[in-house]
Amino acid sequence: MEDNTPSRDLVCVLFPGLVKNEEKAIQCLGGIKQISQVYSQPAKKRLGLSFQPDNPYVKKIYANCKKATGVVLKVKIKKTKVDNEVNREVVSTSVVGRVKKMYKFEAMCDFQYLPVHREGNGPLKCVLEQLLPSGLDDVSFVTGPAPMFIVPSNFTRSDKPTNYSYTDKRYISKEIKDTDLHCRVRAERGTPVVRFDFNLVDVLPTEPHEYYMNRKAAKVKIFPELENEYQTVKKMFDERPILSQNLIRYQTKFRISCLKIILPCLSLYMMSGPWRMLWVRYGYDPRKEPGARIYQTLDFRLRHEAGVHSMVTTKDQVTHYKRADRVRYRRWLDSEGLAIDAIEVNEGAVYFRPGMVPTQRQVFYMYCDVKLPEVEAIISQEPPAGYLCHPKRGWLPPNADQLCRDHIFKYVKETLLANHNTEFKLEQGSSDDGSNSEDDGDSFTDDRSEPSTSNTC
Protein backbone atom coordinates (compact mmCIF):
# COMPACT_ATOMS: atom_id res chain seq x y z
CA MET A 1 0.00 0.00 0.00
CA GLU A 2 1.42 3.39 -1.00
CA ASP A 3 1.98 5.90 1.79
CA ASN A 4 0.64 9.30 0.73
CA THR A 5 1.54 11.05 3.98
CA PRO A 6 3.33 14.32 3.20
CA SER A 7 6.91 14.35 4.48
CA ARG A 8 7.47 18.10 4.35
CA ASP A 9 6.64 20.08 7.52
CA LEU A 10 5.42 23.64 6.99
CA VAL A 11 4.56 26.56 9.25
CA CYS A 12 1.40 28.47 8.42
CA VAL A 13 0.97 32.23 8.91
CA LEU A 14 -2.59 33.46 8.56
CA PHE A 15 -2.08 36.95 7.20
CA PRO A 16 -4.98 39.26 8.20
CA GLY A 17 -5.58 40.63 4.73
CA LEU A 18 -5.58 39.93 1.01
CA VAL A 19 -2.02 39.30 -0.15
CA LYS A 20 -1.38 40.63 -3.63
CA ASN A 21 2.36 41.19 -3.23
CA GLU A 22 4.26 38.54 -1.30
CA GLU A 23 7.34 40.73 -0.77
CA LYS A 24 5.29 43.49 0.86
CA ALA A 25 3.51 40.95 3.04
CA ILE A 26 6.88 39.59 4.28
CA GLN A 27 8.03 43.15 4.89
CA CYS A 28 4.96 43.77 7.05
CA LEU A 29 5.97 40.74 9.14
CA GLY A 30 9.43 42.21 9.76
CA GLY A 31 11.32 40.55 6.94
CA ILE A 32 12.85 37.11 6.56
CA LYS A 33 15.31 37.72 9.40
CA GLN A 34 12.60 38.62 11.89
CA ILE A 35 10.44 35.67 10.84
CA SER A 36 13.42 33.32 11.24
CA GLN A 37 14.12 34.58 14.75
CA VAL A 38 10.51 34.02 15.78
CA TYR A 39 10.46 30.57 14.18
CA SER A 40 13.65 29.48 15.98
CA GLN A 41 12.26 30.55 19.38
CA PRO A 42 8.49 29.96 19.30
CA ALA A 43 8.18 29.70 23.08
CA LYS A 44 9.83 33.06 23.70
CA LYS A 45 8.96 35.49 20.93
CA ARG A 46 5.76 36.41 19.14
CA LEU A 47 5.33 37.24 15.47
CA GLY A 48 4.56 40.92 14.98
CA LEU A 49 2.82 42.53 12.03
CA SER A 50 2.73 46.21 11.04
CA PHE A 51 0.70 47.42 8.09
CA GLN A 52 3.13 50.38 7.77
CA PRO A 53 6.62 48.97 8.40
CA ASP A 54 8.31 52.35 7.89
CA ASN A 55 6.11 54.09 10.45
CA PRO A 56 7.34 53.45 14.03
CA TYR A 57 4.17 54.99 15.49
CA VAL A 58 1.94 52.22 14.18
CA LYS A 59 0.90 49.73 16.85
CA LYS A 60 1.77 46.19 15.89
CA ILE A 61 -0.49 43.19 16.26
CA TYR A 62 0.98 39.91 17.43
CA ALA A 63 0.39 36.22 16.89
CA ASN A 64 1.45 33.33 19.11
CA CYS A 65 2.60 29.97 17.81
CA LYS A 66 -0.14 27.38 18.18
CA LYS A 67 -0.35 23.71 17.33
CA ALA A 68 -2.37 22.88 14.25
CA THR A 69 -3.29 19.90 12.11
CA GLY A 70 -3.67 20.40 8.39
CA VAL A 71 -2.15 20.11 4.94
CA VAL A 72 -1.25 22.57 2.21
CA LEU A 73 -2.69 21.74 -1.19
CA LYS A 74 -1.54 22.99 -4.55
CA VAL A 75 -4.47 23.27 -6.93
CA LYS A 76 -4.19 24.11 -10.64
CA ILE A 77 -7.33 25.65 -12.12
CA LYS A 78 -7.99 26.26 -15.79
CA LYS A 79 -10.05 29.34 -16.57
CA THR A 80 -12.03 29.64 -19.77
CA LYS A 81 -14.16 32.58 -20.80
CA VAL A 82 -17.31 31.84 -22.77
CA ASP A 83 -19.83 34.61 -23.52
CA ASN A 84 -18.49 36.88 -20.79
CA GLU A 85 -18.67 34.05 -18.29
CA VAL A 86 -15.60 32.61 -16.63
CA ASN A 87 -15.59 28.87 -16.19
CA ARG A 88 -13.13 27.27 -13.79
CA GLU A 89 -11.96 23.68 -14.05
CA VAL A 90 -9.63 21.88 -11.63
CA VAL A 91 -6.79 20.42 -13.62
CA SER A 92 -4.67 18.83 -10.88
CA THR A 93 -4.15 18.81 -7.11
CA SER A 94 -1.12 17.86 -5.08
CA VAL A 95 -0.13 17.89 -1.42
CA VAL A 96 2.72 20.29 -0.70
CA GLY A 97 3.23 19.47 2.98
CA ARG A 98 1.69 19.13 6.40
CA VAL A 99 1.13 21.96 8.87
CA LYS A 100 1.86 21.40 12.58
CA LYS A 101 2.36 25.01 13.69
CA MET A 102 0.30 28.05 12.91
CA TYR A 103 0.55 31.77 13.62
CA LYS A 104 -2.88 33.37 13.82
CA PHE A 105 -3.48 37.07 14.47
CA GLU A 106 -6.41 37.37 16.85
CA ALA A 107 -5.76 40.84 18.31
CA MET A 108 -7.46 44.08 17.37
CA CYS A 109 -5.66 46.56 15.14
CA ASP A 110 -8.11 49.44 15.55
CA PHE A 111 -5.98 51.47 17.95
CA GLN A 112 -3.59 53.43 15.74
CA TYR A 113 -2.07 56.86 16.30
CA LEU A 114 -0.57 58.29 13.12
CA PRO A 115 1.40 61.56 12.84
CA VAL A 116 -0.95 63.78 10.86
CA HIS A 117 -1.50 67.54 10.94
CA ARG A 118 -4.12 69.86 9.50
CA GLU A 119 -3.57 73.52 8.69
CA GLY A 120 -6.76 75.48 8.88
CA ASN A 121 -9.57 73.76 7.03
CA GLY A 122 -7.23 71.89 4.73
CA PRO A 123 -6.86 68.13 4.47
CA LEU A 124 -4.87 66.02 6.87
CA LYS A 125 -1.21 65.62 5.95
CA CYS A 126 1.31 63.11 7.22
CA VAL A 127 4.19 64.76 9.10
CA LEU A 128 6.31 61.64 9.55
CA GLU A 129 9.23 63.16 7.63
CA GLN A 130 9.29 66.10 10.03
CA LEU A 131 9.56 63.80 13.05
CA LEU A 132 12.09 61.20 11.93
CA PRO A 133 15.62 62.20 10.84
CA SER A 134 16.56 61.12 7.35
CA GLY A 135 20.32 61.07 7.88
CA LEU A 136 20.98 64.14 5.71
CA ASP A 137 19.55 66.74 8.08
CA ASP A 138 21.57 69.58 9.58
CA VAL A 139 21.53 71.03 13.09
CA SER A 140 18.36 73.00 12.36
CA PHE A 141 16.40 69.73 12.42
CA VAL A 142 17.09 69.46 16.16
CA THR A 143 17.00 73.12 17.11
CA GLY A 144 14.02 74.16 14.99
CA PRO A 145 10.33 73.82 15.92
CA ALA A 146 8.72 70.41 15.59
CA PRO A 147 5.10 69.23 15.32
CA MET A 148 3.44 68.51 18.65
CA PHE A 149 2.91 64.77 18.27
CA ILE A 150 3.03 62.66 21.44
CA VAL A 151 2.19 58.97 21.34
CA PRO A 152 0.10 57.76 24.33
CA SER A 153 1.74 55.34 26.72
CA ASN A 154 -1.05 52.77 26.32
CA PHE A 155 -3.08 52.11 23.22
CA THR A 156 -5.56 49.75 24.87
CA ARG A 157 -5.69 47.65 28.02
CA SER A 158 -6.49 44.47 26.13
CA ASP A 159 -5.52 43.37 22.64
CA LYS A 160 -8.63 41.24 22.34
CA PRO A 161 -12.27 42.31 22.50
CA THR A 162 -14.14 41.44 25.68
CA ASN A 163 -17.80 40.59 26.01
CA TYR A 164 -19.95 42.56 28.43
CA SER A 165 -23.20 41.13 29.66
CA TYR A 166 -25.78 43.88 30.09
CA THR A 167 -27.93 42.75 33.00
CA ASP A 168 -29.56 44.18 36.09
CA LYS A 169 -28.04 41.48 38.32
CA ARG A 170 -24.65 43.01 38.98
CA TYR A 171 -23.99 40.99 42.12
CA ILE A 172 -24.64 37.34 42.83
CA SER A 173 -26.93 36.64 45.74
CA LYS A 174 -25.51 35.17 48.92
CA GLU A 175 -27.65 32.02 48.60
CA ILE A 176 -26.14 31.12 45.22
CA LYS A 177 -22.66 32.01 46.39
CA ASP A 178 -22.85 29.71 49.43
CA THR A 179 -24.31 26.73 47.57
CA ASP A 180 -22.32 26.83 44.31
CA LEU A 181 -18.60 26.24 44.79
CA HIS A 182 -17.92 26.75 41.09
CA CYS A 183 -19.43 30.23 41.06
CA ARG A 184 -16.74 32.70 40.06
CA VAL A 185 -17.20 36.03 41.79
CA ARG A 186 -14.91 38.92 42.62
CA ALA A 187 -12.69 38.27 45.63
CA GLU A 188 -13.90 39.80 48.85
CA ARG A 189 -12.18 42.95 49.97
CA GLY A 190 -10.48 43.13 53.30
CA THR A 191 -8.71 39.78 52.94
CA PRO A 192 -6.58 39.16 56.05
CA VAL A 193 -2.93 39.77 55.24
CA VAL A 194 -0.47 36.96 55.93
CA ARG A 195 2.65 39.08 55.27
CA PHE A 196 4.86 40.41 58.06
CA ASP A 197 7.05 43.51 57.87
CA PHE A 198 10.04 42.59 60.02
CA ASN A 199 10.45 44.36 63.35
CA LEU A 200 11.48 43.42 66.88
CA VAL A 201 8.27 44.54 68.59
CA ASP A 202 5.20 42.89 67.07
CA VAL A 203 4.24 39.36 68.10
CA LEU A 204 4.13 36.74 65.36
CA PRO A 205 0.80 34.90 64.96
CA THR A 206 0.78 31.30 66.15
CA GLU A 207 -2.22 30.04 64.14
CA PRO A 208 -3.53 30.72 60.63
CA HIS A 209 -6.48 32.97 60.03
CA GLU A 210 -9.86 31.31 59.68
CA TYR A 211 -10.24 32.76 56.20
CA TYR A 212 -7.37 30.69 54.77
CA MET A 213 -8.57 27.47 56.38
CA ASN A 214 -12.07 27.95 54.98
CA ARG A 215 -10.63 28.65 51.55
CA LYS A 216 -8.58 25.46 51.67
CA ALA A 217 -11.60 23.43 52.77
CA ALA A 218 -13.60 24.78 49.82
CA LYS A 219 -10.83 23.90 47.36
CA VAL A 220 -10.45 20.40 48.79
CA LYS A 221 -14.07 19.67 47.88
CA ILE A 222 -13.25 20.48 44.27
CA PHE A 223 -9.72 19.04 44.20
CA PRO A 224 -9.31 16.29 46.88
CA GLU A 225 -5.63 15.80 46.00
CA LEU A 226 -4.96 19.19 47.60
CA GLU A 227 -5.25 17.61 51.05
CA ASN A 228 -2.36 15.22 50.31
CA GLU A 229 -0.24 18.11 49.07
CA TYR A 230 -1.12 20.03 52.23
CA GLN A 231 0.13 17.17 54.41
CA THR A 232 3.35 16.94 52.38
CA VAL A 233 4.14 20.63 52.83
CA LYS A 234 3.22 20.39 56.51
CA LYS A 235 5.72 17.58 56.95
CA MET A 236 8.40 19.74 55.31
CA PHE A 237 7.70 22.54 57.81
CA ASP A 238 7.99 20.03 60.66
CA GLU A 239 11.50 19.17 59.46
CA ARG A 240 12.54 22.77 58.70
CA PRO A 241 10.67 25.71 60.28
CA ILE A 242 11.55 28.16 57.49
CA LEU A 243 11.15 27.38 53.79
CA SER A 244 11.16 29.22 50.48
CA GLN A 245 8.58 28.73 47.79
CA ASN A 246 11.26 27.76 45.27
CA LEU A 247 12.56 25.04 47.61
CA ILE A 248 9.06 23.59 48.02
CA ARG A 249 8.41 23.69 44.29
CA TYR A 250 11.77 22.07 43.52
CA GLN A 251 11.30 19.19 45.96
CA THR A 252 7.57 18.54 45.47
CA LYS A 253 6.85 19.83 41.93
CA PHE A 254 3.60 21.29 43.23
CA ARG A 255 1.85 24.04 41.31
CA ILE A 256 1.93 27.66 42.40
CA SER A 257 -1.86 27.78 42.40
CA CYS A 258 -1.90 25.04 45.06
CA LEU A 259 0.89 26.57 47.13
CA LYS A 260 -0.96 29.88 47.26
CA ILE A 261 -3.69 28.05 49.16
CA ILE A 262 -1.46 25.81 51.28
CA LEU A 263 1.31 28.16 52.46
CA PRO A 264 -0.92 30.76 54.25
CA CYS A 265 -2.45 27.88 56.23
CA LEU A 266 0.93 26.76 57.56
CA SER A 267 3.26 29.73 57.63
CA LEU A 268 3.80 33.47 57.62
CA TYR A 269 5.48 35.37 54.78
CA MET A 270 8.40 37.66 55.71
CA MET A 271 8.42 40.80 53.57
CA SER A 272 11.68 42.25 54.90
CA GLY A 273 14.47 41.61 57.36
CA PRO A 274 17.02 38.79 57.59
CA TRP A 275 14.44 36.20 56.52
CA ARG A 276 12.77 38.20 53.76
CA MET A 277 10.97 36.35 50.97
CA LEU A 278 10.72 33.23 53.15
CA TRP A 279 7.79 31.43 54.81
CA VAL A 280 8.06 30.95 58.60
CA ARG A 281 6.03 28.23 60.32
CA TYR A 282 3.35 29.41 62.74
CA GLY A 283 4.57 29.22 66.32
CA TYR A 284 8.25 29.61 65.41
CA ASP A 285 9.89 32.98 66.08
CA PRO A 286 13.33 33.26 64.41
CA ARG A 287 13.97 36.52 66.29
CA LYS A 288 14.32 34.49 69.51
CA GLU A 289 16.23 31.51 68.10
CA PRO A 290 19.94 32.04 67.32
CA GLY A 291 19.88 28.76 65.42
CA ALA A 292 17.61 30.38 62.84
CA ARG A 293 20.63 32.17 61.35
CA ILE A 294 21.21 29.25 58.98
CA TYR A 295 17.83 29.97 57.33
CA GLN A 296 18.50 33.66 56.65
CA THR A 297 18.27 35.03 53.10
CA LEU A 298 21.44 35.58 51.09
CA ASP A 299 21.02 37.90 48.11
CA PHE A 300 23.66 36.85 45.56
CA ARG A 301 24.16 38.82 42.35
CA LEU A 302 26.67 37.97 39.65
CA ARG A 303 29.39 40.56 39.20
CA HIS A 304 30.69 42.21 36.03
CA GLU A 305 34.16 40.76 36.18
CA ALA A 306 36.28 39.05 33.51
CA GLY A 307 33.27 38.62 31.22
CA VAL A 308 31.60 36.20 33.63
CA HIS A 309 28.40 38.27 33.82
CA SER A 310 27.57 37.64 30.15
CA MET A 311 27.97 33.87 30.55
CA VAL A 312 24.86 33.57 32.75
CA THR A 313 21.44 34.43 31.41
CA THR A 314 18.95 36.56 33.25
CA LYS A 315 15.94 35.19 35.11
CA ASP A 316 13.73 36.20 32.23
CA GLN A 317 15.29 34.45 29.26
CA VAL A 318 13.93 37.05 26.83
CA THR A 319 14.85 40.36 28.41
CA HIS A 320 16.54 41.46 25.18
CA TYR A 321 13.15 41.36 23.49
CA LYS A 322 10.59 44.10 23.70
CA ARG A 323 7.90 43.35 26.21
CA ALA A 324 5.21 43.24 23.53
CA ASP A 325 7.22 40.67 21.53
CA ARG A 326 7.47 38.18 24.39
CA VAL A 327 5.28 35.15 24.68
CA ARG A 328 2.98 35.47 27.64
CA TYR A 329 2.84 32.29 29.72
CA ARG A 330 -0.83 31.52 30.02
CA ARG A 331 -2.27 29.81 33.04
CA TRP A 332 -4.06 26.87 31.51
CA LEU A 333 -6.62 25.19 33.77
CA ASP A 334 -6.59 21.46 34.29
CA SER A 335 -9.62 19.22 34.79
CA GLU A 336 -9.79 20.16 38.50
CA GLY A 337 -9.91 23.88 37.74
CA LEU A 338 -6.42 24.70 39.05
CA ALA A 339 -3.80 26.49 37.01
CA ILE A 340 -0.97 24.56 35.38
CA ASP A 341 2.40 26.26 35.86
CA ALA A 342 4.56 26.75 32.80
CA ILE A 343 7.98 27.25 34.41
CA GLU A 344 9.78 24.74 36.64
CA VAL A 345 12.34 25.56 39.31
CA ASN A 346 15.90 24.41 38.62
CA GLU A 347 18.33 23.14 41.24
CA GLY A 348 20.63 26.11 40.70
CA ALA A 349 17.89 28.48 41.90
CA VAL A 350 17.77 26.75 45.31
CA TYR A 351 21.12 25.10 46.10
CA PHE A 352 24.75 25.98 45.49
CA ARG A 353 27.75 23.70 45.75
CA PRO A 354 31.20 23.60 44.10
CA GLY A 355 30.96 23.03 40.36
CA MET A 356 27.49 24.54 40.02
CA VAL A 357 26.48 27.75 38.24
CA PRO A 358 23.43 29.83 39.19
CA THR A 359 20.56 29.62 36.73
CA GLN A 360 20.19 33.40 36.73
CA ARG A 361 22.18 36.49 37.55
CA GLN A 362 20.41 37.13 40.86
CA VAL A 363 19.47 34.31 43.23
CA PHE A 364 18.06 34.39 46.75
CA TYR A 365 19.69 31.51 48.65
CA MET A 366 19.24 30.33 52.21
CA TYR A 367 22.57 30.11 54.02
CA CYS A 368 22.04 26.45 54.90
CA ASP A 369 21.57 25.60 51.18
CA VAL A 370 25.00 26.99 50.22
CA LYS A 371 27.21 23.90 50.54
CA LEU A 372 30.62 25.59 50.77
CA PRO A 373 33.05 24.97 53.64
CA GLU A 374 33.84 28.69 53.91
CA VAL A 375 30.16 29.62 54.23
CA GLU A 376 29.45 26.81 56.67
CA ALA A 377 32.30 28.07 58.86
CA ILE A 378 30.80 31.57 58.96
CA ILE A 379 27.27 30.50 59.90
CA SER A 380 28.56 28.04 62.50
CA GLN A 381 29.74 30.87 64.74
CA GLU A 382 27.50 31.20 67.77
CA PRO A 383 26.51 34.76 68.71
CA PRO A 384 27.76 35.92 72.14
CA ALA A 385 25.55 35.64 75.21
CA GLY A 386 23.00 38.42 75.48
CA TYR A 387 23.22 39.32 71.78
CA LEU A 388 19.89 40.45 70.31
CA CYS A 389 18.66 39.79 66.78
CA HIS A 390 19.77 42.53 64.40
CA PRO A 391 17.02 43.97 62.14
CA LYS A 392 19.27 43.71 59.06
CA ARG A 393 21.77 40.89 59.47
CA GLY A 394 19.87 38.82 62.01
CA TRP A 395 22.11 36.52 64.08
CA LEU A 396 25.15 36.71 61.77
CA PRO A 397 28.28 38.80 62.39
CA PRO A 398 28.85 42.04 60.46
CA ASN A 399 30.00 41.71 56.87
CA ALA A 400 29.07 38.01 56.83
CA ASP A 401 26.87 38.40 53.75
CA GLN A 402 29.69 40.11 51.85
CA LEU A 403 32.16 37.35 52.72
CA CYS A 404 29.72 34.66 51.64
CA ARG A 405 29.14 36.42 48.33
CA ASP A 406 32.89 36.57 47.76
CA HIS A 407 33.24 32.82 48.33
CA ILE A 408 30.30 31.96 46.08
CA PHE A 409 31.52 34.20 43.27
CA LYS A 410 35.01 32.67 43.49
CA TYR A 411 33.59 29.20 42.86
CA VAL A 412 31.22 30.44 40.12
CA LYS A 413 34.03 32.26 38.34
CA GLU A 414 36.30 29.22 38.37
CA THR A 415 33.55 26.97 37.04
CA LEU A 416 32.47 29.31 34.25
CA LEU A 417 35.95 30.12 33.02
CA ALA A 418 36.96 26.46 33.12
CA ASN A 419 33.94 25.43 31.05
CA HIS A 420 34.37 28.25 28.51
CA ASN A 421 38.13 27.65 28.06
CA THR A 422 39.00 31.32 28.49
CA GLU A 423 42.32 32.85 29.45
CA PHE A 424 41.16 35.94 31.33
CA LYS A 425 43.32 37.37 34.07
CA LEU A 426 41.19 37.25 37.15
CA GLU A 427 41.28 40.02 39.69
CA GLN A 428 39.95 39.91 43.18
CA GLY A 429 37.68 42.95 42.79
CA SER A 430 35.09 44.27 45.16
CA SER A 431 31.40 43.33 44.92
CA ASP A 432 28.80 45.39 43.07
CA ASP A 433 25.84 43.51 44.50
CA GLY A 434 24.64 46.12 46.92
CA SER A 435 26.60 45.68 50.15
CA ASN A 436 28.61 48.68 51.42
CA SER A 437 29.16 47.75 55.02
CA GLU A 438 31.90 49.62 56.83
CA ASP A 439 32.56 46.79 59.30
CA ASP A 440 35.55 44.53 58.64
CA GLY A 441 36.20 41.07 59.90
CA ASP A 442 33.70 38.57 61.20
CA SER A 443 33.41 39.49 64.88
CA PHE A 444 30.11 40.40 66.50
CA THR A 445 29.43 44.08 67.22
CA ASP A 446 26.24 45.95 67.92
CA ASP A 447 25.71 48.79 65.41
CA ARG A 448 21.97 49.30 65.71
CA SER A 449 22.50 53.01 66.20
CA GLU A 450 23.92 53.43 62.69
CA PRO A 451 21.39 54.44 60.03
CA SER A 452 20.74 51.90 57.29
CA THR A 453 18.83 52.29 54.05
CA SER A 454 19.11 48.80 52.59
CA ASN A 455 17.09 45.71 53.32
CA THR A 456 19.47 43.42 51.50
CA CYS A 457 21.10 40.82 53.70
Q: Please give the count of helices.
A: 11
The strands making up the biggest β-sheet line up spatially as 1-4-3-2
Radius of gyration: 30 Å
Compute the average pLDDT: 78
Low-confidence stretches: 179-183, 316-321, 329-340, 422-442, 445-457
Global geometry: elongated
Going by helix content, strand content and strand pairing, the class is alpha+beta
The oligomerization state is single chain
Order of helices and strands: EHHEEEEEHHHEHHEHHEEEEEEHH
Number of strands: 14
Measured by DSSP, the beta-strand proportion falls in: 15-25%
Question: Overview of this structure, please?
Answer:
With 457 residues, this protein is an alpha+beta fold. The protein folds into 2 domains: 9-105, TFIIIC, subcomplex tauA, subunit Sfc1, barrel domain (Phosphorylase Kinase, domain 1); 195-420, no CATH class. It has 11 helices and 14 strands. The protein has a 4-stranded mixed beta sheet with strand order 1-4-3-2, covered by helices on one side. A 4-stranded mixed beta sheet has the order 7-9-10-8. The longest helix is centred in the C-terminal third of the chain and has 21 residues, at 400-420. The radius of gyration is 30 Å and the shape is elongated. The N and C termini lie far apart (71 Å). Residues 179-183, 316-321, 329-340, 422-442 and 445-457 have low confidence and may be disordered.
Task: Write a concise keyword list for the protein shown above.
alpha+beta; 457 residues; 11 helices; disordered C terminus; 14 strands; four-stranded mixed sheet; elongated; Phosphorylase Kinase, domain 1; 2 domains
